[in-house]
């Protein structure tokens, strides 16, 4: 997009109407928002609000309109952060129209939100979404009666199947014209207003429902009932879930890794055959800086993109189908004892693919303690980048059978580190929120819907990650090449000196200066560890030369210690960056990095020293 | 039938918005393993609720006896 994360943020433009979109979670609000705006949304900073809101400018029948997507809320008087955000927004920002989105099939309880908005005296419009589901479940709605009783325009739409969107746009324009008589105002005394009307709310709701809505005598969703009998089965539920997840990962990596390699090769080819000749006249130091620093940095970020896209595609399918909340149901009992909940489990599992999208996924959590604790354990999930390093090391130092055992052991340790960390810190990051989750009926996700969402996530990743990773790669490159004239990554370079400097700390865990430099590389991304070792030893990984060079200098005990450290310490700069942006706390980010370093050192130390005691060399 | 909500105001708002309020019929569809959450149906909505939290919702059977999660 042309304007995203613009630090100037957004301010209201005179003459432009502001339309706020309000609705409960799981009503298809974001789907509708993206469909109305054709995904031209960007993130805006609103004065007085700490969270980012999605917004988009669009033109409706000649009128310029700014559409703002407010967080999904259950109750305008609720106590969650999101509910407070919506209240503050309505109090501080003059809006010309509120679009209320309700799930038509759950109008029996969601009507409450519409009544609350109406109570505030704001010009409003009701869109009953998921018309298809209401039909499927036998909920009949008399739109005219409902509109008459609410004294608000009411439309039945299905955002997922793009039904009724044209009418919705037209209705918004009409409602804006009708409301244009007075200037837009923000709400005064919001709390008092709502509190005064609260007592009559239930009675008003019951009488409107009685007059305008018919409900089925019996629950009609036989499909959901039948699927739940198996998928939530006390004994079979979890095994089925693990098989489904395993298949999903297989699919993501079967498709993603070749794409990632192809993209990597393309960027390498570009830098070798196009960029290097083009910069031939530049001073060597500057040229190397651009080619091995900058381009390598951007390449590192780009190579992540296909896997992230596929990952969110798969996540989108699992989530939109309603299965993700079932997984949360199945694992909640175990996770509750770790101070986490079912959703943290699902995300940690996702982390075995890549930690970055898994941490982005913690956004579904409302409680900040729970979110932070989840962010603390996700980096211990053994991601595919680390697996690359381990597969290489295992093949150099062990027979295939031993190697498989070593890798399996690392997976076990990955789980153990997450569980241990959760148990240790669950008191510090207590979750104050009760877990009440909706279990939606099973739904068939549509292709455009999941594609659009995956694309939006990839874009989001690209925006914040590129600066951060480029900065990291460039500084490591400088460490390896300064002072001027030294051989890259040699003992005289800054990173070589760093390796020597860290010996008192790393010698007790069997990491020599050269391996130390590789670990410094690994801080950016584990993808660079092998490449880093190759530069340091002056051998390529593919020819087998690196394996020989390593094995001649490093014992298998040192190698295992190196793997343990690699598994547990900071996964990559991208993960650190995403923890920083998602937690919005520098202190927590530093703590997370330090804790993983401490744990990595302790585990490697115990292993290495114990191995010495047993006389293993 | 829900008879009372003995919970903190924050959770009360959430439960009421999801349909769990006094006078409302609820149906328990299943209970999770190892004291896991309860799968409920209220009106047109299905929910999972942890037992710790469910303990604060007073639910009476047809004959007036209290149901324990």
What does this structure look like?
Chain A has 3 domains: 17-214, 3-Layer(aba) Sandwich (Rossmann fold), CATH 3.40.50.300; 237-384 and 414-426 and 452-462, no CATH class; 463-613, no CATH class. In chain A, helix 9 packs antiparallel against helix 10 (284-320). Chain A is elongated and about 85 Å long. In chain A, the strands form 2 sheets. Chain A has a 7-stranded mixed sheet with strand order 2-3-4-1-5-6-8, sandwiched between helices. A two-stranded antiparallel sheet of chain A has the order 7-9. In chain A, helix 3 (107-119) links the parallel strand 5 and strand 6. Chain A has helices at residues 29-37, 81-92, 107-119, 131-136, 143-150, 165-179, 190-212, 222-231, 237-278, 284-320, 323-336, 342-351, 355-360, 368-377, 384-397, 400-425, 447-481, 494-501, 503-506, 513-524, 527-537, 545-553, 556-568, 573-583, 586-613, and strands at 17-23, 42-44, 53-60, 63-69, 97-103, 124-129, 140-141, 154-156, 213-214, 436-438. The model of chain A is unreliable at 1-10 (pLDDT under 50). The N and C termini of chain A lie far apart (56 Å). Chain A is 63% helix and 8% strand. With 617 residues, chain A is of the alpha/beta class. Chain B is globular, with a radius of gyration of 11 Å. Chain B is an alpha+beta fold and 69 residues long. Chain B has a 3-stranded antiparallel sheet with strand order 1-5-6, with no helix packed on it. In chain B, strands 2-3-4 form a 3-stranded antiparallel sheet. In chain B, strand 5 (57-60) and strand 6 (66-67) form a beta hairpin. Chain B has one domain (2-67): Ferrous iron transport protein A (FeoA) (SH3 type barrels, Roll), CATH 2.30.30.90. Helices cover 19% and strands 38% of the residues of chain B. Chain B has helices at 9-17, 51-54; strands spanning 2-5, 26-31, 38-42, 45-49, 57-60, 66-67. The interface between A and B is large, with 40 and 33 residues.
């Amino acid at each position: 997009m042309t304007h995203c994360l613009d630090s100037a943020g957004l301010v209201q433009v005179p003459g432009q109407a502001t339309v706020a979109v309000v609705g409960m979670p799981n009503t298809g609000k974001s789907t509708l928002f993206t469909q109305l705006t054709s995904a031209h949304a960007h993130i805006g900073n609103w004065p007085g609000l700490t969270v980012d809101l999605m917004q988009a400018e669009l033109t409706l029948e000649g009128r310029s309109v700014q559409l703002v997507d407010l967080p999904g809320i259950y109750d305008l008087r609720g106590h969650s952060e999101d509910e407070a955000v919506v209240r503050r927004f309505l109090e501080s920002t003059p809006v010309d129209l509120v679009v209320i989105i309700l799930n038509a099939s759950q109008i029996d309880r969601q009507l409450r939100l519409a009544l609350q908005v109406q109570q505030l005296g704001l010009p409003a419009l009701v869109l009953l979404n998921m018309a298809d589901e209401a039909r499927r479940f036998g909920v009949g709605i008399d739109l005219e009666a409902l509109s008459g009783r609410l004294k608000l325009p009411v439309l039945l739409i299905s955002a997922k199947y793009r039904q009724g969107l044209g009418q919705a746009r037209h209705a918004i324009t009409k409602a804006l014209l009708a409301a244009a008589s007075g200037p837009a105002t923000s709400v005064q005394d919001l709390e008092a207003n709502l509190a005064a009307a609260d007592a009559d709310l239930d009675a008003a709701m019951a009488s409107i429902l009685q007059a305008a809505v018919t409900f089925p005598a019996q629950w009609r969703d036989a499909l959901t009932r039948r699927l739940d009998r198996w998928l939530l089965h006390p004994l079979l539920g979890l095994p089925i879930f693990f098989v489904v997840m395993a298949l999903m990962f297989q699919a993501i990596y079967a498709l993603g890794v070749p794409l990632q390699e192809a993209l990597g090769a393309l960027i390498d080819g570009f830098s070798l055959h196009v960029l290097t000749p083009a910069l031939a006249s530049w001073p060597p130091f500057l040229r190397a800086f651009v080619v091995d620093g900058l381009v390598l940095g951007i390449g590192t970020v780009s190579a992540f993109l296909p896997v992230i896209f596929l990952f969110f595609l798969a996540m989108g399918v699992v989530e939109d189908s309603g299965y993700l909340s079932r997984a949360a149901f199945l694992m909640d009992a175990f996770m509750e004892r770790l101070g986490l909940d079912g959703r943290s489990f699902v995300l940690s599992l996702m982390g075995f693919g890549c930690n970055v999208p898994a941490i982005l996924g913690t956004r579904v959590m409302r409680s900040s303690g729970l979110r932070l604790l989840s962010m603390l354990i996700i980096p211990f999930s053994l991601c595919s980048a680390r697996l690359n390093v381990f597969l290489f090391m295992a093949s150099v130092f062990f027979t295939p059978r031993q190697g498989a055992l070593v890798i399996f052991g690392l997976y076990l340790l990955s789980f153990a580190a997450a569980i241990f960390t959760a148990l240790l810190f669950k008191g510090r990051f207590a979750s104050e929120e009760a877990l009440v989750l909706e279990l939606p009926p099973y739904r068939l996700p549509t292709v455009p819907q999941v594609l659009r969402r995956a694309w939006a996530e990839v874009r989001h990743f690209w925006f914040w990650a590129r600066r951060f990773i480029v900065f990291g790669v460039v500084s490591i490159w400088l460490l390896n090449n300064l002072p001027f004239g030294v051989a890259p990554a040699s003992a005289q370079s800054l990173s070589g000196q760093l390796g020597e400097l860290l010996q008192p700390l790393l010698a007790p865990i069997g990491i020599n200066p050269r391996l130390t430099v590789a670990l410094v590389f690994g801080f950016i991304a584990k993808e660079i560890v092998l490449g880093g070792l190759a530069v340091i030893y002056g051998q390529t990984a593919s020819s087998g030369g690196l394996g020989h060079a390593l094995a001649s200098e490093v014992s298998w005990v040192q190698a295992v210690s190196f793997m343990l450290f690699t598994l547990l310490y900071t996964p990559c700069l991208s993960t650190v960056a995403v923890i920083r942006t998602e937690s919005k706390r520098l202190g927590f980010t530093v703590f997370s990095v330090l804790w993983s370093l401490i744990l990595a050192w302790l585990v490697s130390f115990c292993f290495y020293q114990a191995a010495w005691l047993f006389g293993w060399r | 039938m829900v008879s009372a909500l003995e919970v903190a105001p924050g959770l009360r708002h959430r439960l009421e918005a999801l349909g769990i309020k006094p006078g409302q019929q609820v149906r328990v569809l299943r209970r999770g393993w190892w004291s896991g959450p309860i799968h409920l149906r209220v009106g047109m909505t299905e929910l999972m609720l942890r037992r710790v939290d469910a303990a604060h919702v007073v639910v009476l059977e047809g004959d007036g006896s209290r149901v324990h999660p």
